[in-house]
Amino acid sequence: EAQVTQNPRYLITVTGKKLTVTCSQNMNHEYMSWYRQDPGLGLRQIYYSMNVEVTDKGDVPEGYKVSRKEKRNFPLILESPSPNQTSLYFCASSLLGGSGANVLTFGAGSRLTVL
Amino acid sequence: AQSVTQLGSHVSVSEGALVLLRCNYSSSVPPYLFWYVQYPNQGLQLLLKYTSAATLVKGINGFEAEFKKSETSFHLTKPSAHMSDAAEYFCAVSESDSWGKLQFGAGTQVVVTP
């Protein structure tokens, strides 16, 4: 089954404790992206990647890091989480170009609470 | 710069009634427009997309949207609401047809009452 898998789905942590949210896709998509969803704000892009070793900032990158060492994986790293990073996070992927461009496949989401 | 505005953060409709969700966009180039739906506790999934081939776009589950350049709008409609349509709906815009730099609206929560 074609899918984007995120882990963990739920996490409660404390301020300053580094954490990583993993994301993996099995569709051979070139494009991968992280979003955060907050009430009344919709989805805001954190980082995106157009291919292996190619990443760039989205609209709200502060406090986050990413890496793309393999095509299928795109982990999101919070080096020193703060309470304002409490949110629902989504990983998504798509093809670049053709009819599949902009047709994002989303993971099920990771709900993060930072105390 | 591209952006979308969704009018109404919550919409309540009766089962069998028309569903109308409003989206207006701002774009400096011809836009590519999308509607995504998010069911409870799930990620978003594509409902439909406009890529300039036709102004009236049909999507899944009986939804359709009409692109109106003069009004910079891309409203989503469904003639008859079903209980399973209860979800959050997001309008999104992209200025590129080759990669996924989407700008999402704030979302509209749809409640369907019996």
Structure, described:
The complex is a heterodimer of chains A (about 120) and B (about 110). Chain A has no helices and eleven strands. Chain A is mostly beta strands and about 120 residues long. In chain A, strands 2, 4, 5, 6, 9, 10 and 11 form a seven-stranded mixed beta sheet that branches. The N and C termini of chain A lie far apart (about 35 Å). The interface between A and B is medium-sized, with 25 and 24 residues.
SSE sequence of chain A, one letter per element:
EEEEEEEEEEE
Number of helices of chain A: 0
Any low-confidence stretches of chain B, pLDDT <50, length ≥5? none
Largest sheet of chain A, if any? 7 strands, mixed
Mean pLDDT of chain B: 91
- End-to-end Cα distance of chain B, whole Å, is 41 Å
- Contiguous helical run count of chain B: 0
Multimeric organization: heterodimer
Biggest sheet overview of chain B: 6 strands, mixed
Order of helices and strands of chain B: EEEEEEEEEEE
Whole-number radius of gyration of chain B? 13 Å
> In percent, how much strand structure appears in the residues of chain B?
over 45%
Major protein interface: A-B, 25 and 24 residues
How large, in whole angstroms, is the Cα Rg of chain A? 13 Å
Topology (elements, then pairings):
The complex is a heterodimer of chains A (115) and B (114).
Chain A: E1 4-7, E2 10-13, E3 19-25, E4 31-38, E5 42-51, E6 54-57, E7 65-66, E8 76-78, E9 87-94, E10 105-106, E11 110-114
Parallel strand pairs in A: 2-11
Antiparallel strand pairs in A: 1-3, 3-8, 4-5, 4-9, 5-6, 7-8, 9-10, 9-11
Chain B: E1 3-7, E2 10-14, E3 19-26, E4 32-38, E5 44-50, E6 56-58, E7 64-68, E8 73-78, E9 87-94, E10 103-104, E11 108-113
Parallel strand pairs in B: 2-11
Antiparallel strand pairs in B: 1-3, 3-8, 4-5, 4-9, 6-7, 7-8, 9-10, 9-11
